[in-house]
Amino acid sequence: MIRLNSREKRFRFVRLQAIVRKEFIQIKKDPASLAIALILPVLLLVLLGYAMNDDVESVHLSVLDQSQTAESRELIDRLTSQGDFNIMSYEHNVSVLEHLLDKGDIHAGLIIPADYSKELATDTAVVQFLIDGSDPTYAQEALFRSESLLLNYAQTVQTEQLVRSGAEVPNSPLKHETQVFYNPSMDSMEFNIPALIGLIMQEVTLILTAFALVREKEQGTIEQLIVTPIRPVELIIGKLVPYTVIGTMSFAFVLLAGVFWFDVSIAGDPFLLVLLSLLFLVATLAMGIFISTIAKNQLQAMYMSFAVILPSVILSGFVFPRESMPMLIQLLGGLIPLTYFLEILRGIFLKANSLQLLWPQSLVLLGFTVLLSIATIAKFKKHLQ
Predict the structure, then answer these.
(1) Would you say 272 and 282 are in contact if contact means Cβ atoms under 8 Å apart?
(2) Which of 109, 169, 272, 341 is the most exposed place for a label (fewest CB within 10 A)?
(3) Domains of the chain
């Protein structure tokens, strides 16, 4: 164990400054890694941003019109007039429709019976939709659009029949007004891009620092640090500062790409967004440093990093809503900083939430940062001893 006098035991900015300078020099010697840290997040955002667009433009539909009347053609026109359904083909056999569904060439098939016009006149017409349920996104969209359009069309037909018969058209007993808040166009990009920014920044910053001390161990330079009067807190902060600078630059690039490339607007305070993002970056950097203190080599550090990253994708609410998960899984998700950062990102991007609403998540991130930093310093101190 190295014995230090009382003067050497005190926190010294000179030693911290030396560690920061040394770390920047090491980073400068590895320009490829620096370029990856700055450019890779933007490339990932562009690639995953387009890949995660789950908006359904139009449902591919094939039609079996056994009626071949003006009424059946009007029904088809109603379904396709707004672009909700894209007619792929007109078929003459049910088995052909089923074959197209089997091949995945269409998402739904519409069957209009031969006596459709006669049944329509007596309010008993039935049309059938065959929907491919293998893809729930398209299946739900096809089901919703078909039910909505057919209901509106049925009301129109009923009104026309009453007018033709001279009967009084009753007023609807129920009227409704719908207003969608925060994302009126319900564009998935507005919801997904902020979450992608958080996920990508976690991956990059975690991996960046997970190798910081491990590399020193493998190169044998950690022993050189141990014989110096450097204090654990000075070393850990010295390691964090350069990567915080790089992580902040990387975050700025990704944020600008999200705003200007994907045209995702920030409804809330950009300054608050940057401030809380910096808090998240420090938390994930501290987590990476902690991994670096317990891993014996870079391979172990990589495995440990993936052990954090993979559950984050599933449990943080990035893909699936946490409210639908069992309580135990929700509790596990609560141990991941990304869970709280996603709520902050979506809150500021979409709802213009202020710190008055986001302080619980901010406090948890601050708690993660403090606990991980203390654990890292304690672990490294033990290593020194």
Answers:
(1) no
(2) 169
(3) 16-53+187-383 (no CATH), 59-165 (3.40.1710.10)
> What is the phi-psi region of residue 110: left when phi exceeds 0, alpha when psi lies from -120 to 50, beta otherwise?
beta
Cβ contact 289:239 at 8 Å: yes
Distances (CA, A) of 154 to 17, 77, 141, 157, 337: 76, 14, 20, 5, 51
218-272 pLDDT, tens digit per residue, is: 777 766 766 677 777 787 788 888 888 988 999 999 999 999 999 999 999 999 9
Give the model's pLDDT for residue 222: 67
Percent of the chain with pLDDT over 70: 93
Q: Rounded distance, CA 15 to CA 26, Å? A: 17
| Nearest partner of 142 among 99, 194, 79, judged by Cα | 79
Taking the C-alpha atoms of residue 126 and residue 150, their distance in angstroms, rounded to an integer, is 11
With left for phi above 0 and alpha for psi between -120 and 50, is residue 75 left, alpha or beta?
A: alpha
Strand partners, 89: 62
In this predicted structure, the answer to whether residue 106 has a pLDDT above a threshold of 80 is yes
CA triple 88-91-95, angle to 5 deg: 115
Q: What is the pTM of this model?
A: 0.80
CA dist 255 and 247 (Å) reads 12
- pLDDT, the chain, mean: 84
* Mean pLDDT value across residues 314-323: 86
The helix/strand/coil state of 336 is: coil
- Strand partners for 59: 85
- Please name the residues in contact with 330: beta carbons below 8 A apart, sequence gap of 6 or more: 322, 323
